[in-house]
Amino acid sequence: MLHTVNKSPFERRTLDSCLRHAQPDSAVLLIEDGVYGAFDGTAITGKVKDAIGNFKMYVLGPDVRARGMDESHVLDGITVVDYEGFVDLVAEHDKVQAWL
Amino acid sequence: MAEPWEDEEQGPVRKFMYVNRRAPYGTIYALESLEVVLIAAAFEQDVSLVFLDDGVFQLKKGQDTAAIGVKNFSPTYRALEGYDVEKLYVEQESLEARGLTADDLVVPVQVVNQKELGDLMAEQDVLLSF
């Protein structure tokens, strides 16, 4: 299953809820304000590093650039994808769960 | 008889603080706050803006919204000085939790800690939350 998370992990518990319920073969794509969870040097970096070990993690590049965040500071193990990559992820997985 | 808005008697200048706690594009709060600040600047009050929690992301340098199809309003923060809106405060703890420093921001700001920010809030006549 593909999980999408679109809320800031600093403001909401959406990412936590996603990571608690996602199964080991899952992919997790961070979009919109969810992209703030993808970076090194933050208060939640440790939690996200743990998730990288458990799931395939992606972040949407256009949403990263819109927010002025530095792609070079995306955590190792999180793949930056564009909109075409987003479509591919949806097509590759049997279901999508959007954590709103 | 003069209309009320023609009354030359100015009321007392009051202290207005705009409290910004949301990231810039996921919701409309940040843009709405900026619009209200620009409108209210005409009333010549003692205005300050504070950015804390995810509000600090509003000021992040390097925003490029071309690919998401919405307006990048971050350059507007640099124009606030022209409206005599010169008091910009950013909370230190909020920056640190997000891996940011004052160098990452589009405008010069005064970085304050939580205690100092609480004191600033207590001094205000009006607080407007976004």
In short:
The complex is a heterodimer of chains A (100) and B (130). Chain A is 34% helix and 21% strand.
Could you walk me through the main structural features you see in this protein, from its secondary elements to its overall organization?
The complex is a heterodimer of chains A (100) and B (130). Chain A is α/β, with parallel strands linked by helices and 100 residues long. Chain A has a single domain, classed as Hypothetical Protein Ychn, Chain: A (3-Layer(aba) Sandwich). Helix content of chain A is 34%, strand content 21%. Chain A is built from four helices and five strands. In chain A, strands 4-3-2-1-5 form a five-stranded parallel sheet. The two termini of chain A are 16 Å apart. Chain B has 130 residues and is α/β, with parallel strands linked by helices. Chain B has one domain (15-129): Hypothetical Protein Ychn, Chain: A (3-Layer(aba) Sandwich). Chain B has helices at 29-40, 76-79, 92-97, 114-122, and strands at residues 15-20, 46-51, 87-91, 110-112, 126-129. Chain B has a five-stranded parallel sheet. In chain B, β2 (46-51), α2 (76-79) and β3 (87-91) form a beta-alpha-beta unit. Chain B starts with 14 loop residues before the first strand and ends with a strand. Classes of the chains: A alpha/beta (100), B alpha/beta (130). At the A-B interface, α3 of A face loops of B.
Helix-strand layout with pairing:
The complex is a heterodimer of chains A (about 100) and B (about 130).
Chain A: E1 2-5, H1 14-21, E2 27-30, H2 45-54, E3 56-60, H3 61-66, E4 78-81, H4 83-92, E5 96-99
Parallel strand pairs in A: 1-2, 1-5, 2-3, 3-4
Chain B: E1 15-20, H1 29-40, E2 46-51, H2 76-79, E3 87-91, H3 92-97, E4 110-112, H4 114-122, E5 126-129
Parallel strand pairs in B: 1-2, 1-5, 2-3, 3-4
